[in-house]
Amino acid sequence: MSVIKVAILGFGTVGEGVYRTIHSHAEELKTVLGKKVEVAAILIRNQEKQRNISGDVLVTSDFEDILKLPQLDIVVEAIVGKESPHLFLKKSIERGCHIITANKEMFAHHGAELQKLAEENGVSVGFEATVAGGIPVIQTIRHLLKVNRVHQLQGILNGTSNFILTEMREKKQSFAEALLQAQQNGFAEADPTNDVEGFDAFYKTMILSRIAFGDEPNWEDVERQGITAITRELIEAAETYGLRFKHVAQINIKEGELKAVVKPVLVNQDHPFYHVEGVQNAVNVRSDIVGGITLQGPGAGMFPTASAIIEDLVFVCQNKLADVPKTTGFVSDDKTLQGEQEYWFVQGVTEKLPKELTVVDQSVAGFCILKAAKKDLIWLANKEEVLCFPILGEIKLIKEETLDSVAVS
Ligand code: HSE
């Protein structure tokens, strides 16, 4: 029986998870592929650190040593940063290797180029692990929704942020305590700013956009906010209204153009994301034939990410050629144009408001729910003492009065 030789770049949480899974699932891999999968080499940074790696594996901090191996079939990349991993993967493709990456920042920047290069070299690119951890969302959209025209995607795409919001609500933890726990569990990025300021979710959103729509919005036009402004006080007030904070990425088509936004929103219990808790991620795909589908599962951590990579390993072996991203053409979904009324959760309103803004509920002092078009709310949202968060979907009206007659105190 011939052998498939794999190199793993990086031996952090993800790299180690892949190494251990290749061993724990050796029989399954052999059955599916008809070949034994062997880890031939591992790229590490610190030679001094103790690691549990078998003696017959080349452990090196020089990528060129790996390229010189007599047989190398697949390179799995799980390192931090974007320029070195990009270069390593380019060289791997040119050597004729399939590549698999978990690096969303690198892939958001260089994915299109790597896929083109792979196509020219007759090899495949696996990048399931770049988005939503263990959820097979990329393969689902690429291979199981080929004819459906996707018109909207919503996703909880950062496990660390969702974990922090859940811990703050359920266990009354502070932001710092919850973040530390996410780091200890191996969920957070090396620099957790990427998680809590929305950069990680932003990169994942751009990758998903290319898969679902064959294109991505201008990065500069994407509104990106993290969860650092969300306090326990906000979380508790929202809960009184039956709402939960979620950090959500949304892509849809407005006036023929792709628009994306990545920021904290509120959902009520009718929304599929309401019960998505802890490190779980979820992706809701809306398309013309099937309607709405929600995929949910663990969004970060050693084995969920290893799962995505191991399934990609089978995918790249079975698909000799890099496949071109699904392109559906745009279907307009202009439901939330500027003039369309939406619901908002607002903190810090102290003055009378114009009648374009409808108070839906103001039963918690200092917080209210308004119904308003975005264009009518902007002046209020721009005030320093006011915080406004959109509520996704419809909410049940408890009462509806305009602020023309009712002052919010
Ligand atoms: N830091 C990322 C997250 C890891 O928390 O979602 C998975 O991409």
Task: Give the helix proportion (percent range).
Answer: 25-40%
Are there runs of 5+ residues with pLDDT below 50, and where? 399-409
Bound molecules: L-homoserine
Q: Briefly note the structural class of the backbone.
A: alpha/beta
Name of the CATH architecture of the largest domain: 2-Layer Sandwich
> Globular, elongated, flat, extended or rod-shaped: what is the shape?
elongated
Strand content: 15-25%
**CATH fold-level name of the largest domain:** Dihydrodipicolinate Reductase, domain 2
Spatial arrangement of strands, main beta sheet:
3-2-1-4-5-6
Number of domains: 3
CATH homology superfamily of the largest domain: Dihydrodipicolinate Reductase, domain 2
Biggest sheet character: 6 strands, parallel
List the SSEs and their pairings.
Blueprint: E1 3-9, H1 13-24, H2 26-33, E2 36-43, E3 58-60, H3 63-67, E4 74-77, H4 83-94, E5 98-101, H5 104-121, E6 125-126, H6 137-144, E7 150-156, H7 159-170, H8 175-184, H9 193-196, H10 199-213, E8 223-224, H11 232-240, E9 244-254, E10 257-267, E11 280-287, E12 291-298, H12 302-318, E13 341-347, E14 358-361, E15 367-373, H13 374-381, E16 387-391, E17 401-402
Parallel strand pairs: 1-2, 1-4, 2-3, 4-5, 5-6, 8-10
Antiparallel strand pairs: 7-9, 7-11, 9-10, 11-12, 13-15, 13-16, 14-15, 14-17
Bound molecules: L-homoserine.
L-homoserine binds at residues 133, 158-160, 187-189, 195, 200, 299-300.
